Structure formats: structure tokens, C-alpha cells
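Listing S7. Sequence submitted for prediction.
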Amino acid sequence: MLRRDDLRRYICEFIGTYTLVFFAAGAVVVSASMDGALGAIGGGLISGLVLMVVIFAFAHVSGGHVNPAFSIATVYLGLLERRLLAGYIIAQMLGSALAGLSLLWAFGSHGDMGANLPNTLLGISPLTAFLIETFLSFLLMVVIFGALSAGGRVAELAAIPIGATVGIEVMLMGPVAGAAMNPARAFGPYVAMGDFTHYWIYVAGPVIGMMAGAVVMRFTHGEISPPQP
């Protein structure tokens, strides 16, 4: 039986992920259609800021995960009930797919639909992109865990360092290795692009990186008390 509170969480994850992907991937699509007007810095700022907004809007209901890799890690950390995980991931992936198709409908096919990709022109192999993605996801999990475990105002304002971390990672590594740190961020653009050749990088990298970050930070910082929505 689907509980009302569960449905509220899933809807928040769907809307939050749609919003994240629409703006983060949309920044790449719009920039490509305008001869690179936004650039890596603009794309990174948009990605970080929209994630910050989404977390502030939805964290008190669903946690504002908008990221299947993070949801998996929160189950391990005891911050999300295992029974909710499948619903979270389905809502996140559906929101992402709709965002990718919305961008395709609104702007047409530009900039690989904002898909996260290894830059083969720079000699970045899929394996190199995977290793970079794993490290970026590990670092993001370290920041999230550190902010939440601090408690008080630091935890309440955790969206700021989380958004800043994502923004910096996208600015620096987005043009090189994709910098998704999130299987859902990557999914919608891949659906719109119609080519999943490199999608595995942005599933395996974030899941492994975030789980590694959760394991390390749980050892160094201890447990985090489950939030009360």
C-alpha cells in the first residue's frame, strides 16, 4: 500500500530531479545553440545554484536527493528506509527522462543534449572519465556527510556547500570528463540523445564514489541521526 507521505516524497524527488536536469543540461544545450555563450563557468554556476535551490525546496520533505547514487548511500547510512529506495530511484529517473525530452522538444538537438561525456578530443578515455567521476562523487559525498554531521546551522545550510561543490566540479571537470556525480543527471540527456555508449561511466562512478565516501566518513565522523521531515 502506497502511503500518502511516501507519495509526497516521490513527487518531490520527481519535480526536483526534473528541475535539476532541465537547467543543468539545459545550460549546455542553450550554450551550444549560442556558440558557447555560457561556457564552463556558466554551466557550473547554473548546475550548482539549481541544485542548491532544489535542496532548499525539497529537503524537508524527501531529503532533496535527486540522485540515485546518493539515495543508495543514504540507505547504507540509515538515513532512508530501504523500502523507499526503489520509489526514489524511479521518481528520479522519470523526472530526468522528462527533462531531457523537454529540452529536445523546446530547443532541438544541440550540444549532445547536455549529456555527460568523456572528452575524447582531449584524449580522455572512458576509463579515465570513470576514475574522475568516481573521485568527484566521493568528494561530493564527503562534503554532504561533513555538512550534515556538523548539525545546527551548518546542517540547515548544507545546500550551500553542496551546491558550491557541484558547481566547482562541473566548471573544472565538466568539459573534460562529464562531471555528473549523479546517474539521474546523466540519464535524461542520454535518453534525448539516443546513445547510451558512455552512460555506464555516470552510473558506476557515482555509485562507487558515493558509497566509498559514505564508508570513509562514517568511520571518521561516526553516525548521522536520521532527519525528521
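Caption to Listing S7: primary sequence and predicted C-alpha cells for the chain studied. The first helix runs from residue 4 to 33. The mean pLDDT is 95.
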